Amino acid sequence: MANKIKVKTTIVEMDGDEMARVMWKMVKDKLLFPCLDINIDYYDLHVKHRDDTDDKVTIDAAKAIMKYGVGIKCATITPNEDRVKEYSLKKAWKSPNGTIRAMLDGTVFRKPILVNNIKPAVSAWKKPITIGRHAYGDVYSNTEFAVPAAGKLELVFTPQDGSKTISVPVFNFPGKGIAQVNHNLEQSILSFARACFTYALSEKIDLWFSTKDTISKIYDASFREIFEREFNKNWKDKFKTAGIEYFFTLIDDAVARIMKTEGGILWALKNYDGDVLSDMIASANGSLAMMTSVLVSPNGWFEFEAAHGTVQKHYYKHLKGEETSSNSMALIFAWTGGLRKRGEIDHTPAVIEFADKLEAAALATVEEGTMTGDLLVLAEKRPSNKKVNTEGFIDAIAVNLQKKLNG
Ligand code: NAP
Ligand code: MG
């Protein structure tokens, strides 16, 4: 292409591992670099390079996102004992996603990519339902206790300032039983609320939030109150201007309503609800390779990625020289999400338009019947359906992209 589209501000790129890394390079070489004049701040999060730098590269990448505002990340290995052996690592380094999330104080939003020849399991759903999961506290950092025999259980709080301890009676056990204590932090819930309002406004979609505040009158009710206070204080006018709504309802009501909605909303959920219901939404939409993920910081930093991992099994086939049919859709959408956000922040409509066209080209490719193996089993059976290999899929998208760019 003669005239490349200029991306004004530097983009932070985080490279990754295995088959995702193989696809990542193809996406850049075949879909992005031929069309974009782009300055990249590159961080290689390959597991071996994280090991070589004692994971400093991950921290540097997170700092770069704080500096520039937008990062795009490939899937990376979270090492376990097998991976430590496989790559001769010094140790099982922490998940890069966990490290970056902690540094940006962010919330992860997952959104399915819809095509017209793969129908969601719920027929009412026409637009994506995005899930925002609070990734702190509750049952994930609980304290559990096996009550051995009859007796009285109490909670004791000892204030740091030396003031009087507080005891809360829990239950008089008539015999053996079990108990569980959950906790959460006001600051963490507030960050979660801010990230949800930021995301909904950025996508111009309604925000639903649901807890069980009728039963849990302090714990769940606090979530509701913190969201409400933050909304009234900082978001009400912005939502009104954008023509979107904040809507709180009981979790049971939300679950019932979600089956009847046409979608196009953000559904914010507490940690456990989000864990369970994000898997339901993912499965109802078909394939992990059709799910994008964005980390939104309450400070307005964004990190885009695919929801899937490194696609390890396909990579081992690839290494043996066998043909693979891995789906690069979510990785492409990580790039388009990041580029669109960059364009919005920089006020460069040409970049936003490029992101729109690349997404349209990728969707059109599948809708015309050219797809990878994971989608072929889900798609409506049509004579035009054709399975392509990893590279063939990206090549077909490149052809469609050229058509769209040429008008
Ligand atoms: P995975 O990479 O998501 O793959 C699981 C399975 O899902 C694949 O074997 C494949 O099924 C299917 N799949 C996922 N993405 C696909 C794609 N793009 N195209 C076609 N099929 C796709 O999860 P995993 O194998 O459990 O994990 C592998 C590595 O990824 C692990 O080391 C883990 O730490 C890492 N991981 C990283 C992230 C991240 O960076 N965000 C997230 C999750 C996991 P078939 O084999 O049936 O074709
Ligand atoms: Mg889950």
What would your notes on this structure say?
With 407 residues, this protein is α/β, with parallel strands linked by helices. It folds into three domains: 1-106 and 293-407, 3-Layer(aba) Sandwich (Isopropylmalate Dehydrogenase), CATH 3.40.718; 119-140 and 182-285, Isopropylmalate Dehydrogenase; 143-181, no CATH class. 44% of the residues lie in helices and 21% in strands. The protein is built from 14 helices and 18 strands. The strands form five sheets. It has a ten-stranded mixed beta sheet, with helices on both faces. Strands 1-3 form a two-stranded parallel ribbon. The protein has a two-stranded antiparallel ribbon with strand order 8-11. Magnesium ion is lined by residues 275, 279. Magnesium ion (MG) binds next to helix 9.
Provide a quick synopsis of the model.
With 407 residues, the chain is an alpha/beta fold. The protein has three domains: 1-106 and 293-407, 3-Layer(aba) Sandwich (Isopropylmalate Dehydrogenase); 119-140 and 182-285, Isopropylmalate Dehydrogenase, CATH 3.40.718; 143-181, no CATH class.
